Amino acid sequence: MASRDTNDLHGILKEAYYKACDMYKVKFPNDPQPFVTCTYRSNDEQNALYNSKPKVTNAKAGESPHNYRPALAFDIAFVTLKKTLSWDNKYFKQFADILNIVEPRIEWGGSWSSFKDAPHYQLNGWQNFKNNS
Question: Which of 13, 26, 34, 69 has its CA at 20 to 30 Å from residue 98's CA atom?
Fold first, then answer.
């Protein structure tokens, strides 16, 4: 099973995630709040997602920033005050905007022109980090 542990994240991502969560909670206290759904993901898990229907990723094993330790990406979801999940793009965008203020080196999958991935946030140029982690 994929990790949800923020200790599996690259330090830049971990620090930025927590700062962004704090800012998000202050700015949007009544909106659903973010939580991590994936940090590190094994190659087997990556290939299973790549081969799934419907397709949820374009990355095969080793091609995803989730496949490295420390992980160079994380995915989130949002939990409402009533403890239900929300996948509304509005919240992903709000979080991305705050995250961009906290750490401009993080890119949001929801801003990609093809295969938008709203829950996904990764270090921009993550390939340069995989050997320096």
Answer: 69
Structurally, the chain folds into a number of domains equal to 1
DSSP-based three-state secondary structure for 62: coil
User: In this structure, are residues 88 and 105 in contact, taking their beta carbons and an 8 Å threshold?
Assistant: no
CA distance 113 to 96: 16
Task: Look up the pTM and report it.
Answer: 0.95
Map residue 44 onto helix, strand or coil. helix
Nearest to 123 by CA among 132, 115, 49: 132
Domain interval for residue 79: 6-128
Beta-ladder partners of 36: 76
Q: Tens digit of pLDDT for each residue in 78-115?
A: 999 999 999 999 999 999 999 999 999 999 999 999 88
In this structure, is residue 133 part of a structural domain? no
> Looking up tokens 């790549």, which residue turns up?
50
